[in-house]
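Help needed: design a sequence for this.
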C-alpha cells in the first residue's frame, strides 16, 4: 500500500488508518456508516481532485466523494478505496454587484448563508444548517426559499468540474450544456465539482416563522386544516408540518410556517394558521433568516444512528394521516420525527425538463427519520420504519434523490421520472465505466 501511496501527490493531506485524524475524517452525519477507506485525500483545489481521480483510475480503486458528509446513505465514505474529502475546501466569494456567489464544495449551509445575507442576499438552501452545499445542490436542494426562487439547483449558474478522466471543465449553459442540465439534480454521477456559482436574490435579513405545537388529540384536525390552507398560500409562505416528541417527552403535532416576503405582510398570511385549534405553544416571531435556517438543527444532531425512508405525497389524504398516526403512537425512539415539507411555488412551476431534478409538482416531501443512540436498538427502529414505510409507500408519488437511504438503490429511477433516460445517456457520454458509482447511482445507458 505504501508504494501505491507514493504515486498520489497532492497539496492537501493524505490520511491512512492509524493517522490521528483518520477516524474523524471518515465520520459522517449518520453513525450507522462505519467504513474504512484505504486512503482519505483531503483535497485543497481542483488539481488535487484531478490527481486523485487519475490515481484511483490507474489503480482500479473505488472512489467516494465527501462534501458536507451529511447524506443519510453515507456514500461519502467507501470501504477500502479512495475517499476524496472536499470538506477542507471552504472558499466563498460574493459578488454583490452581480448578485452571484461562488462556493467550494466543503462549504456547509450555515457558512454560505452567513456570507451572503450580510450583503442582503440569499439563495435557496436546505433546512438544517450543517448540511453540505455540494451534495444538496447536486441532488436538487429543497429549502424555505424554493417557493420564491426555485430549488438550489435552479440557481446554479455554472460549475467547475473534474471529469472521470481527470480533465477539468467549466460547465454552464454554453459549455457542456448537457452536463450542466445533468448536475442540476443528477447528483454526483457525472464528475466532481470543485466550484459552484449561484444566482443570489435580494432578501431579508429577517423572516417571520416559528413552530406551533398541538396535542396529539388535535392532530387529525390540524393536519386537515393545514393541507387545505397550504394549497392557497402565496409563494412567500412556506410550511413544514409533522410529528415530533418534545424534549420533555410529549408527543405533539406541529406546523412550522415561514414567511419569506415583506415582514409587514406576514401577519395577514400566517394569522389563520395561528388561529386554528388550541395550540400548546405558538413560537411564531420575527427572526433573522439565519435563525430560521438552523431552527431544525437541534432535532438532527450529527453522529447518531439513523435509518430513513422518504417519498413525495401529492395529497395528505385521510388514509395517509391515519397510518401516520398509528405509527407515531408506537415509535420506538422519541428522537424520530415524521416530517412533511411542502414543495410549491417556483420550485413546482419550473418545467420538469428544464433540469435533471425529477418530480416537480405541488407536493409534500415526507421523511420518516428514525434516530436513536444505542446499536442494541438498531433492529427495533429499522423494523418499525420498514413496517411504517410498507404501509405508506403505495400512496407515494416519486422520491427526492437526496433523501434515499442506503438500501434504496432500486428507487433511484423514481427520483427522476421522465428525466431518467436522458440522464443515463449523459452518464454514458461522460462516465461510461461508471467510475463515479458511490452515489445514488445512475448506470450508463
Ligand atoms: C438532517 C438532514 C436535513 C436535511 N435537510 C434537507 C433540506 O432541507 N433540503 C434538502 O434539499 N436536502 C436536505 N437534506 C438532504 C441533503 O441535501 C443531502 O443529504 C445531501 O447529499 C447532503 O450533501 P453533503 O455534501 O453534506 O453530503 P455528502 O454525504 O458529503 O455527499 C453526498 C453525495 O453527494 C455527492 N457529492 C458531494 N459533493 C460532491 C462534489 N463536490 N462533486 C460531486 N459529487 C459530490 C457524492 O455522491 C456524495 O456521496 C438533509 C439531510 C439531512 C441528513
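Sure. Designed sequence:
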Amino acid at each position: 500500500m505504501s508504494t501505491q501511496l507514493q504515486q498520489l501527490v497532492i497539496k492537501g493531506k493524505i490520511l491512512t488508518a492509524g493517522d490521528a485524524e483518520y477516524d474523524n475524517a471518515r465520520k459522517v452525519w449518520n453513525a450507522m456508516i462505519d467504513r474504512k477507506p484505504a486512503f482519505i485525500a483531503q483535497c485543497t483545489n481542483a488539481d488535487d481532485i484531478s490527481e486523485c481521480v487519475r490515481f484511483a483510475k490507474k489503480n482500479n480503486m473505488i472512489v467516494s466523494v465527501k462534501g458536507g458528509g451529511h447524506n443519510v446513505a453515507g456514500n461519502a465514505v467507501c470501504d477500502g478505496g479512495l475517499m476524496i474529502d472536499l470538506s477542507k475546501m471552504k472558499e466563498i466569494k460574493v459578488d454583490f454587484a452581480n448578485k452571484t456567489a461562488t462556493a467550494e464544495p466543503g462549504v456547509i449551509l450555515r457558512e454560505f448563508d452567513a456570507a451572503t445575507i450580510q450583503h442582503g442576499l440569499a439563495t435557496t438552501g436546505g433546512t438544517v444548517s450543517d448540511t453540505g452545499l455540494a451534495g444538496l445542490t447536486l441532488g436538487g436542494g429543497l429549502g424555505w426559499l424554493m417557493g420564491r426562487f426555485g430549488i438550489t439547483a435552479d440557481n446554479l449558474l455554472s460549475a467547475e468540474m473534474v471529469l472521470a478522466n481527470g480533465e477539468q471543465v467549466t460547465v454552464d449553459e454554453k459549455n457542456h450544456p448537457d452536463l450542466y442540465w445533468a448536475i442540476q439534480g443528477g447528483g454526483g454521477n457525472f464528475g466532481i465539482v470543485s466550484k459552484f456559482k449561484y444566482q443570489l436574490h435580494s432578501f431579508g435579513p429577517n423572516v417571520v416563522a416559528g413552530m406551533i405545537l398541538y396535542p396529539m388529540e388535535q392532530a387529525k384536525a390540524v393536519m386537515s386544516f393545514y393541507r387545505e390552507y397550504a394549497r392557497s398560500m402565496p409563494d412567500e409562505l412556506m410550511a413544514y408540518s409533522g410529528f415530533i416528541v418534545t424534549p420533555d417527552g410529549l408527543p405533539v403535532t406541529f406546523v412550522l410556517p415561514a414567511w419569506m416576503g415583506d415582514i409587514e405582510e406576514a401577519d395577514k398570511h400566517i394569522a389563520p394558521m395561528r388561529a386554528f385549534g388550541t395550540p400548546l405553544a405558538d413560537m411564531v416571531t420575527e427572526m433573522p433568516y439565519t435563525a430560521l435556517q438552523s431552527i431544525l438543527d437541534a432535532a438532527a444532531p450529527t453522529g447518531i444512528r439513523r435509518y430513513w425512508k422518504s417519498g413525495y405525497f401529492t395529497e395528505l389524504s385521510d388514509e395517509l394521516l391515519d397510518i401516520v398516526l398509528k405509527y407515531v403512537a408506537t415509535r420506538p425512539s422519541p428522537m424520530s420525527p415524521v416530517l412533511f415539507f411542502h414543495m410549491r411555488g417556483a420550485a413546482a412551476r419550473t418545467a420538469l425538463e428544464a433540469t435533471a431534478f425529477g418530480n416537480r409538482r405541488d407536493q409534500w416531501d415526507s421523511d420518516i427519520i428514525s434516530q436513536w443512540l444505542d446499536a442494541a436498538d438498531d433492529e427495533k427502529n429499522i423494523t418499525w420504519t420498514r413496517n411504517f414505510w410498507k404501509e405508506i409507500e403505495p400512496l407515494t408519488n416519486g422520491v427526492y434523490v437526496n433523501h434515499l437511504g442506503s438500501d434504496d438503490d432500486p428507487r433511484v429511477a423514481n427520483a427522476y421520472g421522465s428525466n431518467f433516460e436522458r440522464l443515463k445517456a449523459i452518464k454514458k457520454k461522460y462516465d461510461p465505466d461508471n467510475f463515479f458509482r458511490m452515489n445514488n447511482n445512475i448506470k450508463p445507458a
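The longest strand covers residues 363-372.
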